[in-house]
Amino acid sequence: MTDPRTVVVVGASVAGVRTAQSLRTEGFGGRIVLVGDEPDLPYDKPPLSKQFLTGCWSVERIALLTAEAAAAAEIELRLGVAAQRLDVADRQVVLIDGSTIDYDAAVLATGAAARPAPWSPTSGVHVLRSMADARALRDDLEVDRPVVIIGGGFIGAEVAATAHALGREVTVVDPLSAPIGRVVGREVGELFVDLHTRHGVTTKFGVGVESVEGEAGDLTVQLTDGSQLAAGTVVVGIGAVPNDGWLAGSGLLVDDGVVCDEHCRAVDAADVYAVGDVLRWFHPGHGEHVRVEHWTNAVESAAVVAHNIAHPEELRSHCPVEYVWSDQYDWKIQIVGRPVGATRHTLVGDLTSAHPRGAAVYADDSGDLRGAVAVNWPKALLVCRRAVGAGASFDDVVAQLDRLSAAGAAPA
Amino acid sequence: MPRLLADVKACQGYGNCITGAPDAYDIDDDGKVVLLTEEISDADRPRVEEAARSCPANALSIED
């Protein structure tokens, strides 16, 4: 059955693409227009800091939606043209080329941008968010000069591992003494610091950056402890900011993301939805508004919004368990829940042997499970992910992992 | 009936498929996807298709 409605999805990264595809899966028979500011066909971002950056994977390998797949699903692509503003009263998306698209439902999927580097020498300083960023960085990484990475979070650590694999001499700088500790707690965060040093990457943690000067191939990074680092290339990974500036005059409530209800509908505009990194929604499980920059949250919120547009008579809430992964050196890292709010943790397995495999499980004072971090042990992560979703107890999960480990899942 | 396909080599053990369709997918001790059924009903298809699409490694598909 055809539907007279038009859905306009603004943003063609994973949240936007999956929303468009899921609308069809949910049986939506109306018109779907997918707007994207980049000229390239939609692509997936996680490989940009890993397989795409090394050159192992091609553009085709990281495609999210081919032209053929879009045509088959009757998804109209408007690529290479950014949205300029949203007219909520007239239900129109206005594009920067002056054209407009009328909508019955709008889905805001404009994502987040890399927080810009506060230092701007003429060249040689990179951020990494888009395919164009990755291509430019790859070109500079081909030059055999030291690489300095500012920011020891996930992007910084992944680029460090990749640059090291490409044969570069790498130093990672961060003002925190254990940067990933922001996510996994200080003690487990220290293991992430060891991971760098064990692979021959230098860390300067607990030290800030004063300035970056020079040009590509000949940069000087001045640190707050008075020391200097010479670099051919500098990569800045200091977080992301939601792409919500274009909505400033829309009348929508925007506060570090588009503020939405539990159904991912913008407050005060029931025909406007948000998905992915730009979504700040009321999480019924946490009882507060949150914004989450994880790939899985993009896909899960897309499915919820597609369902809610296709079936407005049975609205779903978006109540996910947080889940994120990262690949660094020989560690496949998977994190579920909210470990950082925990007061204690137990480690099952071994993360420092030649074949690391283990999981840290986190609890709060009441013994409730808060989350888990698994390394090279997807089965353990799965157990923990189910347990966090089901509200299981910490002791119960540790016992399950002990059994899993003893049953031979962990290496001898 | 729609048939489930899995590319075990591509699977990275992310486990998203199991959150969406625990009746169709699981992973083994090596972290590789296991199909719990070969075919699904048309009624289950939207839900299982969403689960397949949630695979970050593009390892899952459904064939008519």
Automatic annotation (TrEMBL), chain A:
Reductase C-terminal domain sequence ranges: 323-396
Gene Ontology cellular-component terms listed: cytoplasm
Keywords linked to the UniProt accession: FAD, Flavoprotein, Oxidoreductase
Pfam assignment, any one: Reductase_C
Domain FAD/NAD(P)-binding residues, every copy: 6-302
GO molecular function: oxidoreductase activity, acting on NAD(P)H
Cofactor (UniProt): FAD
Protein name per Swiss-Prot or TrEMBL: NADPH-dependent 2,4-dienoyl-CoA reductase/sulfur reductase-like enzyme
Automatic annotation (TrEMBL), chain B:
UniProt GO molecular function: 3 iron, 4 sulfur cluster binding; dioxygenase activity; metal ion binding
Stored InterPro entries: Fe-S_cluster_ET
Record protein name field: Ferredoxin of phthalate dioxygenase
Cofactor(s) in the UniProt record: [3Fe-4S] cluster
Organism lineage string: Bacteria, Bacillati, Actinomycetota, Actinomycetes, Micrococcales
Pfam families: Fer4_15
Keyword set, alphabetical order: 3Fe-4S, Dioxygenase, Electron transport, Iron, Iron-sulfur, Metal-binding, Oxidoreductase, Plasmid, Transport
Name of the coding gene: phtA3
